[in-house]
Design goal:
The chain is mainly α. The chain has one domain: Hypothetical protein af1432 (Orthogonal Bundle). Helices cover 71% and strands 0% of the residues. It is built from nine helices and no strands. The chain has helices spanning 3-17, 31-43, 48-56, 59-62, 67-85, 96-108, 112-131, 138-155, 160-181. It is globular.
């Protein structure tokens, strides 16, 4: 399968899996998140397989897709990357802070490619905290950003460019939050 066919197939599967889902705090289609994650990975020099896994990284958690269907449709490399990005189902009902600690522990031993995708994922998520403030109360947003930083800290050393992008997104989201708390415009 060509790189273009692989990526468009992964995008199609992701779009179908996330149909009707939106990002917290807005009407932005959820699929925009996975596209942004794939774009960050590709911009950082990730392989087509990494970009495809980035597109698919939430399909097992958020849809009827299974690890087996990802392996059947995309092969063992992409299936392994997606599996490493998928939270253990037993974490689902845990408080966010606990989930983030478990994600960080899991990521600390993950392959470099997985850690790169995870940094891109957390970057996109933190950007959305700043872009979609209506969905977050300030305390919840600060807790989310702190949890994301914990996960990214466990991934550090995987990709300095992605790490810098996360750091910038975190600083921007915190600036937006501070401005919002003070009733002003962050610009």
């Amino acid at each position: 399968m060509s790189d273009a066919a692989l990526l468009t197939r992964a995008a199609l599967v992701a779009a179908r899996a996330h149909a009707g889902q939106t990002r917290k705090g807005g009407s932005i289609p959820y699929v925009n998140h996975v596209i942004e994650v794939a774009h960050l990975v590709a911009e950082a020099g990730g392989t087509p397989e990494m970009a495809a896994a980035a597109l698919l990284h939430d399909v097992v958690e958020d849809s009827d897709a299974t690890a087996e269907s990802v392996a059947r449709d995309f092969g063992p490399c992409i299936a392994t990357l997606v599996a490493c990005m998928t939270d253990d189902p037993s974490w689902e009902d845990l408080p966010r802070g606990e989930r983030k600690k478990l994600q960080a522990a899991h990521m600390s031993g993950a392959p470099r490619a997985v850690r790169r995708i995870k940094i891109a994922d957390q970057t996109s998520n933190v950007r959305d905290v700043g872009r979609l403030p209506a969905g977050w109360n300030p305390g919840e947003a600060r807790d989310y950003i702190a949890g994301a930083a914990l996960v990214v800290d466990a991934c550090r050393g995987a990709d300095p460019g992605l790490e810098a992008a996360f750091d910038a997104a975190r600083a921007e989201a915190l600036a937006h939050l501070s401005a919002r708390e003070q009733g002003g415009d962050p610009c």
